[in-house]
Design brief:
Blueprint: E1 2-6, H1 10-21, E2 25-30, E3 45-48, H2 54-60, E4 67-70, H3 75-87, E5 93-98, E6 115-118, H4 119-131, E7 137-142, E8 147-153, E9 174-181, E10 184-186, E11 199-204, H5 209-215
Parallel strand pairs: 1-2, 1-4, 2-3, 4-5, 5-6
Antiparallel strand pairs: 7-8, 8-11, 9-10, 9-11
Domain RCK N-terminal: 1-117
InterPro entries: K_uptake_TrkA (IPR006036), NAD(P)-bd_dom_sf (IPR036291), RCK_C (IPR006037), RCK_C_sf (IPR036721), RCK_N (IPR003148), Trk_Ktr_HKT_K-transport (IPR050721)
Domain RCK C-terminal: 137-218
Length: 218
């Protein structure tokens, strides 16, 4: 994929390095000359300019990008970049960083955002996930709450131990996408047996999360 990242601070550069390691083409757009440091991520294309300006986006060729990531430390900038990328340049996928959780309500498809990533929310979810066994933990929200990535770790006394994946009677609008077992990442098949300690990752709409919990016996 070709990915454009608005904001070449520590967060933007880290994302760029990860994507480049994954074999993607990356362009970093930075308006502050003090943070314009191409030598820090040499394999990325660098653009010095304001990503909130249509002219900068045009000159950078952002319409050729598959994904735009608004990763600056300013929520107002991230919202504007998202809106321009989606409405003016028809970028297929727009991901935006939410710095202040109180601004999260702004990061919707009305402003061009497909996925909003709130670091404080994710950190809180990671803490919950680390200490919660036998309870459903919401890790990430997609499409402004239309679907969530949720996790449940099967406790030692789970009645599902030894039973196949097909024994989980999931509701409509919910899917088991991955089982994490030790260092293994398992793409679940209907006949795969479940084990105590398995971390089950589901994508589900918020409305059916209670039904997912019930299907797992909680």
């Amino acid at each position: 994929m070709r990915v454009a990242i608005a904001g070449a601070g520590a967060v933007g550069r880290s994302i760029a390095a990860e994507l480049i390691d994954g074999g993607h083409q990356v362009m970093l757009i930075e308006r502050e000359s003090t943070q314009f440091e191409p030598e820090t991520v040499e394999q990325a294309d660098w653009v010095l300019g304001d990503a909130c300006e249509v002219s900068t986006l045009e000159e950078s060729g952002i319409e050729r990008c598959d994904v735009v990531i608004a990763a600056t430390g300013d929520d107002k900038v991230n919202v504007v970049v998202s809106l321009l990328a989606k409405t003016e340049f028809a970028v297929r996928r727009v991901v935006a960083r939410v710095n202040n959780p109180s601004n999260e309500w702004l990061f919707t498809d009305a402003w061009g955002v497909d996925v909003a990533v709130s670091t404080p929310r994710m950190l809180a979810a990671m803490v919950e996930e680390a200490v919660s066994v036998g309870d459903l933990v919401r890790l990430m929200t997609f499409r402004q709450g239309q679907a969530n990535l949720v996790e449940l770790t099967l406790p030692e006394e789970t009645p599902l131990a030894g039973r196949p994946v097909s024994a989980i009677a999931l509701p409509r609008d919910a899917a088991l996408v991955t089982i994490l077992r030790g260092e293994r990442v398992i793409v679940p098949q209907p006949e795969d047996p479940l084990e105590a300690g398995d971390e089950l990752l589901f994508v589900a709409s918020a409305e059916v999360e209670p039904d997912v919990r019930k299907a797992l016996g909680y």
